[in-house]
């Protein structure tokens, strides 16, 4: 699935106030549970277990925690913007302020990996990340995330998204 198919406006947590990785993942799990059939504790435990394997902090202030769940119908994404970056044990040792969490069905296999690749590709774009950080509201963030990558132009502005 491509990023626009993963995210809904109600899946954006901005601002997400958390002082550490554990607290951020707990908050995201609480919100994700409201929009899925999976319980908050199960989501949190899966995300934490994945973090034990290695940090999902991919660098440049971005993290992409993810997990697969039995009983989940389709892949779904949740995006958080933290007003104050937090330590996430990222590969570049920089704190994180943009978190895209992906929850996928247990049997998703290659589709899960394709979704992760699409998220990583989008959030590797420094221009997009700057716009996400500068967005003034959830609607603007959603507009940026919901626009297919091939339709994002270098001169598009947040005012168009607001």
Task: Walk me through this protein's architecture.
The chain is α/β, with parallel strands linked by helices and 162 residues long. It has one domain (3-161): Mannitol-specific EII, Chain A (3-Layer(aba) Sandwich). The protein has helices at residues 3-6, 21-35, 40-53, 110-123, 126-134, 138-146, 158-161, and strands at residues 12-13, 57-59, 62-63, 66-69, 76-86, 96-105. Strands 1, 2, 3, 4, 5 and 6 form a six-stranded mixed sheet that branches. The radius of gyration is 15 Å and the shape is globular.
The CATH architecture can be named as: 3-Layer(aba) Sandwich
The whole-number mean of residue pLDDT values reads 92
The CATH superfamily label reads Mannitol-specific EII, Chain A
Low-confidence segments, given as residue ranges, are 155-162
Distance between the termini: 25 Å
Structural class: alpha/beta
Strand content: 15-25%
**Helix run count:** 7
Task: Give me the strand/helix succession.
Answer: HEHHEEEEEHHHH
Radius of gyration: 15 Å
Give the CATH class.
Alpha Beta
Give the number of domains: 1
Biggest sheet descriptor: 6 strands, mixed
Helix amount? 40-55%
- How many β strands by DSSP? 6
Q: What is the CATH T-level topology?
A: Mannitol-specific EII, Chain A
In one word, what is the shape?
globular
Record keyword descriptors for this entry:
162 residues, alpha/beta, Mannitol-specific EII, Chain A, 6-stranded mixed beta sheet, 7 helices, globular
Give the SSE layout.
Layout: H1 3-6, E1 12-13, H2 21-35, H3 40-53, E2 57-59, E3 62-63, E4 66-69, E5 76-86, E6 96-105, H4 110-123, H5 126-134, H6 138-146, H7 158-161
Parallel strand pairs: 1-5, 3-6, 4-6
Antiparallel strand pairs: 2-3, 5-6
